[in-house]
Amino acid sequence: MIFEIHSTDPGSFARAGKLQTDHGEILTPIFMPVGTAGTVKGVHQRELLDDIEAQIILGNTYHLYLRPGLDILRKAGGLHKFNGWSKPILTDSGGYQVFSLKEIRKITEEGVYFNSHIDGSKHLFTPEYVMDIQRVIGGDIIMAFDECPPYPCDYKYAEKSMHLTHRWLKRCVERIQTTEPLYGHHQSLFPIVQGSVFPDLRVQSAEYIASQEQDGNAIGGLSVGEPAEEMYKMIEVVNAILPKDKPRYLMGVGTPENILEGIALGIDMFDCVMPTRNARNGMLFTTEGIINIRNKKWEDDFTPIDPGLGGYVSTFYSKAYLKHLMKCQELLGAQIASIHNLRFYLWLVGEARKHILAGDYASWKDQAVKKLMTRL
Amino acid sequence: MIFEIHSTDPGSFARAGKLQTDHGEILTPIFMPVGTAGTVKGVHQRELLDDIEAQIILGNTYHLYLRPGLDILRKAGGLHKFNGWSKPILTDSGGYQVFSLKEIRKITEEGVYFNSHIDGSKHLFTPEYVMDIQRVIGGDIIMAFDECPPYPCDYKYAEKSMHLTHRWLKRCVERIQTTEPLYGHHQSLFPIVQGSVFPDLRVQSAEYIASQEQDGNAIGGLSVGEPAEEMYKMIEVVNAILPKDKPRYLMGVGTPENILEGIALGIDMFDCVMPTRNARNGMLFTTEGIINIRNKKWEDDFTPIDPGLGGYVSTFYSKAYLKHLMKCQELLGAQIASIHNLRFYLWLVGEARKHILAGDYASWKDQAVKKLMTRL
Fold it and tell me: Where is the active site (chains A, B) (predicted)?
């Protein structure tokens, strides 16, 4: 995988670049729609391409491992062939999901024992097995198996957990180095910086992760309930250490504001369920600000959802019609809102890229955050 | 509204024609997708046009009256403007829905008192009011307010109910004759033949309905639980009386077999929730036969859903992927299956039309029914 930096912003740490994978290139900074079970909820694959202009999507290892399962994925020839998405895919390691199963998992040095949330069946994820699973899924970027500690979390636990993540990383790297991709395309392993909200742990972790010299690096364990300022501080601390010439991925973040601030701090890649999950609840991000489409004020507003954003969905359907669909819990409401919000997120990172290339990112960002986070 | 007959089949009563409305033409025989609350569930408007090739869709008066309500629909300029569907729309009269609310309605000469299934609020539908509502919705074809008796139903009740439907029809016709369309396009009223499964009542009703000399005529009260043979017999009896030069609409029917048999008996228009409702439950109609996509046998079948049908959805996605989506109750599963089944229904009536024009409809129909109703 090749990463080129085209431009850096003079007023911040923002950079515009290009990531080259065997499934095509990704212009950064980039937002990656989340396709948990091999589908971005409510969105057709052609809509991801044409309406949302997604360049890479995520798959969740935990969900794909349970359904459709490795046998089907292997027979299909990997996730790209299974779901028909021929651009890049990133898969997480399943760590975040199994740690969310609080009642039904047990962490050991070997790995994590857990019970499926679907049928209660017992499973063990070890770092090695998670690498093997991600070989079968076939993502272009695969994530190391880490422990994501909750927030708040005491220093002792965060430190212990970080060391476990580092030992697991060694096992992940070794497994990847001694196995081959199954479908002929390259898979890059991204290790994950942990350390909760403790700067010294974050420094230690970033140094360890950087020393692995992988194709790219990720920051995990943020946006788990801590104040945004804490998150930004951790990103700053970590990005001062992570190599500049490798892409940096901030996992599971966030609001449009979080993303623009993250870019200013030198992040290149983002993913979050917010645009799709909030869409299904009627919260729309628009080029004019945030709309709760369930509010009565939209019921007779027959103007398009967001003419400024362009695209079929945001210019064809009216706010009043979308409000009606949401009120009736019609599938089409979730579909429209999901496409709209994802298009907005891709537009957002595209605008950020333009302003990095133009050299005025920092000043644009402050204005954009103010406007885009306004509640209409 | 102008109806032309292009061809009649020598071996049956099937005819191929064209219905001209102010929102464009409809080639018959035609299937009309059901868009209950102003949306065909899970389907974008452009998908109705491009993937399904729908020529006319239905809206349900009962649902649209309750939500978004007449105030919003009037302000929007009618349903076409509200949901962005610029081809023809047919609205039912709400009769079928309010009679389904068994516990919460009361039938009188004046009309039907009922409680909303949403919030329990009390409403009265009279024939006049239902015409006014359909003026506000603005469908190109609007239906008379009728009583749809259940099956089975004793002769006395069926007779009484039929006479009530006839008296209500008179009031509908008078209301339509003394009011104007609200949005500048013509609205045609279709009266509805009732009479349950009693041939003499059906004859009486068909004669009365024919005597109204409206733009088209409908047959109601079928496909409510009676054997298919009873339904075909009633259609035969009624179609011998309904004028040949007017379109005939068989309401709420049915399976591919029902539709092909109905066409053979001289029906021109059909609607049914079956393709979309069954899609959401995993039942697919294909050019090779019927598939229950939830069956284990499809889990590793990576061939397209139905290459013979053509179109993005049916040729891009595999059976294995759709089975996976259905198993995970992913929105995209319902979306894919709904588009596929509706495309199939439009393909079905398109094939029927071709064979009517070719003059071999009757023999083609028998083979087609056999193949298309096979369970794969």
Answer: 92 (proton acceptor), 271 (nucleophile)
Q: How far apart are CA B302 and CA A80, in angstroms?
A: 13
- A304-340: b (≥16 Cβ within 10 Å) or e: bbbeebebbbbbebbbbbbbbbbbbebbbbbbbbbbb
Q: How many helices (H) and strands (E) does chain B have?
A: 15, 17
What amino acid occupies position B194? Q
Which residue of chain A has the CA closest to B75?
A300
Q: Cα A307 from chain centroid?
A: 27
- In whole angstroms, what is the distance from residue A138 CA to residue A182 CA? 7
Give the pTM.
Answer: 0.98
Annotated ligand binding at A95? The verdict is yes
Interface probe with A: pick from B332, B340, B342, most Cβ of A within 10 Å: B332
Residue A360 in marked binding region: no
ipTM beyond cut 0.90: yes
pLDDT, mean over chain A? 97
Cα A47 to Cα B67: distance, rounded to the nearest angstrom: 28
Report the distance separating Cα A343 and Cα A53, nearest Å.
Answer: 7
pLDDT tens figures, A305-363? 999 999 999 999 999 999 999 999 999 999 999 999 999 999 999 999 999 999 999 99
Least confident of A248-252, B115-119, B208-212: B115-119
A67, A300, A313 member nearest B72 (Cβ)? A300
Write out the two tokens for B46.
């452009």
Among B330, B336, B339, B340, most A C-beta atoms within 10 A, so best to mutate, is: B330
B14 CB-side CA count, 13 A: 30
Tell me which residues of B are annotated as active site: 92, 271
CB-neighbour burial class of residue A154 (10 A; exposed 0-12, middle 13-18, buried 19+): exposed
Q: How far apart are CA B361 and CA B340, in angstroms?
A: 24
DSSP B304: B
**Contact between B321 and A44 using a beta-carbon 8 Å cutoff:** no
Contact A302 B81 (CB under 8 A): yes
Q: Is A318 annotated as a binding residue?
A: no
Describe the strand order of the beta sheet including A192-193 as a list of residue ranges: A30-32, A269-271, A248-250, A217-219, A192-193
Our CA-based measurement puts residue B21 at a distance from the nearest CA of chain A, in whole angstroms, of 24
Domain with CATH 3.20.20.105 in chain B: 2-271
Domain A2-271 architecture? Alpha-Beta Barrel (3.20)
Q: Looking at the partner chain, which of A42, A84, A325 has a beta carbon nearest the beta carbon of B39?
A: A325
